């Protein structure tokens, strides 16, 4: 047996959370003690704004507005405590939001007995999604690709400000689900496949939303909502809201760290995974919601369900034989607020019956209501129930726009640049082709002024698409555009698109370069489910046709997940991954193509080469393992187009002089381990490099991962400049969760790897724990 040390008393150890029992909790309990059962249950109810709206939503002459009678029925008669969503999932102006939420607060604070303000929640994802004119950022996946957490902080600060400018104090963000599976339609909403990156960037985004001290009474801050707890992104099928099978030690090792970091960062609320793990719907899991999240992880904030998920315990999961039993299961598992979101009368009536019958204890209702009221107190909604758009002069200011541009420019990732074809020569004749060239949807993805991102054109007139940004930089006269294909299915449009192929190929003959803009249209959640991870047939065929023209071909990808491109990727000259770079993404891409910006993003996930090789970089078995063909080729499991952490630059970097301050430590030692390396910009342009430190446990009592990212830092280097980059860690960083679900460090040999990507094995440093 290996010598090992359990390094923390509880499963996760870090029981903390900002909001210890304090005056706010006492005050909340006092308020709750004066409430009737019906009033308490109302506080646990969240409805969609559509429930209290009337009219037709047909912009620009939409007649849609709140119906006061319906509003009163919900808030006065049923005591509903929370409202969410944008009507018809369409963005509204800050002024519209200010007025509408004010109207809701008027009723809640003047016409009810208890005068408790409503808490309004929105999905302000990658910027203030549902606020017209807001500063939309790149998606979380791009922010991770920047390897610079400053962008997460900025995105959080600006989104919070613009959300408060919309009179909304609560944001259903960040997504902390691990992006392990490129088939999953929400991979772009998170920070990629690595648990450590998720923890670091998630923390910064939360601090951006809530502030360093988590003082969300500050009217420029919002309460954050980490989601979707837990294991949402890892269903067997790769499709949204389908079953996952995840052992507890795996949940703790990979899925919990980002959520634990968020709890430690003081996050105020959490939303639950709509799926099923090990045949238990997470919304009915006492073990996950109460034992793990509350007791072991120390989360003290408020737990909200995802959309209609209590009802789904009955309607979808068939776990219980009625809605009433579903409500009982969810509330007893630990849910504080139900995003019902439509039939609130049923929820309120049935939960009242359950309490009266003793099936849901009053103590559970008091606990849940106290957490809701405490959240409203912390947001200072009792004193300041409204914030007004006119008080937010920085809304979509130049500085905010620049922050969004900077995040895009820092994240876009150059994957291939044969013969230094990029940057493109000024004055060159360029054919731009592919469906993404003229689509703002494909640059921004879902949650952009609408749920599926499909309404973006109503709101984003003033921004470039890829074509217009390229025209602006290279001169309109030098650019020809031929779409080639659309996203649609080849069988439906075969004849029409055959002609378009021919037109694109003919146009290529007159161009020096072909910039091929391929990828995905916008989507999120279920509508984004896929049957085939290959890039769609039409686009693949277009790429293959274009390559026959014999011109230099630059592939520009805009996609929410890495669609497989191996049918043609080896033949293109350059590949630039823009992910979903947001409202200034086209500008950033054009600046990279012309060379004004030196690309410095790196992949926050493994880019797979085949649909059956979907393994993250922290797979099992070392690279040194003897390779063999066919069924025994373990390393072939990890058959990537590009490895995790990979991205190149217009300059080159060299690593030298790797050092460690000590090569042996005794088990239990708290000493720092300091590892450094010299990084030199060996090219002729200034550039930025994300330096990455990995560790490998050579032998462990549970089969170890081949490597794990432990630290990273993005450094700026002038041409010719050398910097020493050093990282400090300790033995806890070498720990893992064992089969008893304990976090342990084991004695034995380790290797540190420091370099430019997960596949850069040039600088290795041995290390031993005795
Ligand atoms: C999504 C959540 C979102 C919620 C409210 C759900 O369908 O899964 O991420 O916060 O809707 O809009």
From TrEMBL:
Which BP terms in the Gene Ontology apply to this protein?
glucan catabolic process
- Please state which protein family the record places this protein in: Belongs to the glycosyl hydrolase 3 family.
Principal EC category: hydrolase
Gene Ontology MF terms in the entry: beta-glucosidase activity
Task: Read off the Gene3D superfamilies from this record.
Answer: Glycoside hydrolase family 3 C-terminal domain (3.40.50.1700), Glycoside hydrolase, family 3, N-terminal domain (3.20.20.300), Immunoglobulins (2.60.40.10)
Which Pfam families does UniProt cross-reference here? Answer: Fn3-like, Glyco_hydro_3, Glyco_hydro_3_C
Q: Which species expresses this protein natively?
A: uncultured bacterium contig00008(2014)
List each copy of the Fibronectin type III-like domain by range. 689-758
| EC number annotated for this UniProt entry | 3.2.1.21
Q: Say yes or no: keyword Signal present.
A: yes
Q: Extract the InterPro entries matched here.
A: Cellulose_Degrad_GH3, Fn3-like, GH, Glyco_hydro_3_C, Glyco_hydro_3_C_sf, Glyco_hydro_3_N, Glyco_hydro_3_N_sf, Ig-like_fold
Question: Lineage of this protein's species?
Answer: Bacteria, environmental samples
| Catalytic activity annotation | Hydrolysis of terminal, non-reducing beta-D-glucosyl residues with release of beta-D-glucose
> This protein's superkingdom?
Bacteria
State what protein this is by name.
beta-glucosidase
Q: Does the keyword Hydrolase apply?
A: yes
Q: Which residues form the signal peptide?
A: 1-20
Per UniProt, which keywords does this protein have?
A: Glycosidase, Hydrolase, Signal
């Amino acid at each position: 047996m290996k010598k090992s040390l359990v390094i923390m008393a509880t499963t996760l150890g870090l029981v903390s959370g900002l909001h210890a029992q304090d005056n706010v909790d006492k005050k909340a309990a006092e308020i709750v003690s004066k409430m009737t059962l019906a009033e308490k249950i109302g506080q646990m109810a969240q409805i969609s704004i559509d429930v209290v709206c009337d009219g037709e939503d047909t912009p620009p002459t939409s007649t849609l507005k709140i119906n006061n009678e319906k509003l009163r029925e919900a808030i006065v008669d049923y005591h509903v405590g929370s409202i969410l969503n944008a009507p018809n999932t369409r963005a509204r102006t800050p002024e519209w939001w200010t007025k509408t939420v004010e109207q809701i607060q008027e009723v809640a604070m003047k016409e009810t007995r208890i005068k408790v303000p409503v808490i309004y929640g929105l999905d302000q994802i990658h910027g203030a999604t549902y606020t017209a004119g807001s500063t939309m950022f790149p998606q979380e996946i791009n922010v991770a690709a920047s390897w610079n957490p400053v962008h997460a902080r900025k995105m959080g600060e600006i989104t919070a400000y613009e959300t408060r400018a919309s009179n909304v104090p609560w944001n259903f963000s960040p997504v902390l689900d691990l992006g392990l599976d490129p088939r999953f339609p929400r991979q772009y909403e998170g920070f990629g496949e690595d648990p450590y990156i998720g923890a670091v960037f998630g923390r910064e985004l939360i601090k951006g939303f809530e502030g360093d001290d988590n003082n969300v009474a500050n009217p420029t801050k919002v309460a954050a909502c980490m989601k979707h707890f837990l294991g949402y992104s890892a269903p067997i099928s790769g499709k949204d809201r389908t079953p996952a099978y995840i052992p507890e030690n795996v949940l703790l090792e990979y899925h919990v760290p980002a959520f634990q970091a968020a709890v430690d960062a003081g996050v105020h609320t959490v939303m639950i995974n709509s799926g099923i793990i090990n045949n238990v719907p997470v919304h009915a899991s006492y073990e996950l919601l109460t034992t793990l999240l509350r007791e072991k992880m120390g989360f003290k904030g408020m737990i909200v369900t995802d959309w209609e998920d209590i009802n789904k315990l009955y309607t979808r999961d068939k776990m219980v034989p009625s809605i009433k039993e579903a409500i009982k299961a969810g509330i007893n598992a630990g849910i504080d607020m139900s995003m019902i979101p439509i039939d609130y009368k049923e929820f309120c009536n049935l939960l009242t019956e359950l309490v009266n019958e003793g099936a849901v204890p009053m103590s559970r209702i008091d606990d849940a209501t106290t957490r809701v009221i405490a959240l409203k107190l912390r947001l200072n909604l009792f004193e300041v129930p409204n914030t007004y758009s006119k008080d937010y002069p920085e809304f979509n200011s130049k500085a905010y726009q620049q922050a969004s541009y900077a995040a895009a420019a820092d994240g876009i990732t150059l994957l291939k640049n044969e013969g230094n074809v990029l940057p493109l020569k000024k004055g060159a004749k360029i054919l731009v082709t592919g469906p993404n060239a003229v689509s703002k949807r494909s640059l921004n993805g879902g949650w952009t002024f609408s749920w599926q991102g499909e309404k973006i054109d109503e709101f984003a007139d003033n921004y470039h698409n890829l074509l217009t940004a390229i025209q602006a930089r290279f001169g309109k006269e030098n650019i020809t555009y031929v779409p080639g294909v659309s996203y649609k299915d080849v069988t439906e449009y075969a004849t029409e698109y055959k002609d378009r192929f021919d037109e694109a190929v003919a146009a290529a003959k007159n161009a020096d370069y072909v910039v091929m803009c391929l990828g995905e249209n916008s989507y999120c959640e279920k509508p984004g489910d896929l049957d085939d991870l290959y890039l769609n047939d039409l686009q693949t065929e277009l790429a293959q046709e274009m390559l026959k023209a014999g011109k230099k071909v630059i592939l520009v990808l805009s996609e929410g997940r890495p669609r497989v491109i191996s049918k043609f990727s080896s033949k293109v000259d350059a590949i630039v991954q823009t992910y979903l770079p947001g409202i200034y993404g086209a500008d950033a891409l054009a600046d990279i193509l012309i060379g004004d910006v030196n690309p410095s993003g790196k992949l926050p996930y493994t880019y797979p080469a085949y649909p059956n090789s979907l393994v993250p970089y922290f797979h099992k078995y070392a690279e040194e393992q003897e390779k063999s063909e066919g069924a025994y080729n373990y390393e072939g499991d990890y058959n990537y187009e590009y490895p995790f952490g990979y991205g190149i630059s217009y300059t080159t970097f060299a690593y030298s002089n790797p050092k460690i301050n000590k090569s042996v430590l005794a088990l239990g030692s708290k000493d720092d381990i300091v590892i450094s390396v010299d990084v030199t910009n060996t090219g002729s342009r200034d550039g930025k490099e994300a330096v990455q430190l990995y560790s490998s446990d050579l032998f462990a009592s549970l089969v170890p991962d081949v490597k794990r990212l432990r630290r990273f830092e993005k450094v700026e280097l002038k041409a010719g400049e050398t910097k020493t980059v050093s990282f400090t860690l300790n033995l806890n960083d070498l720990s893992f969760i064992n089969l008893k679900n304990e976090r342990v460090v084991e004695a034995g040999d380790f290797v540190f790897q420091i370099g430019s990507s997960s596949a850069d094995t040039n600088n290795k440093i041995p290390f031993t724990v005795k």
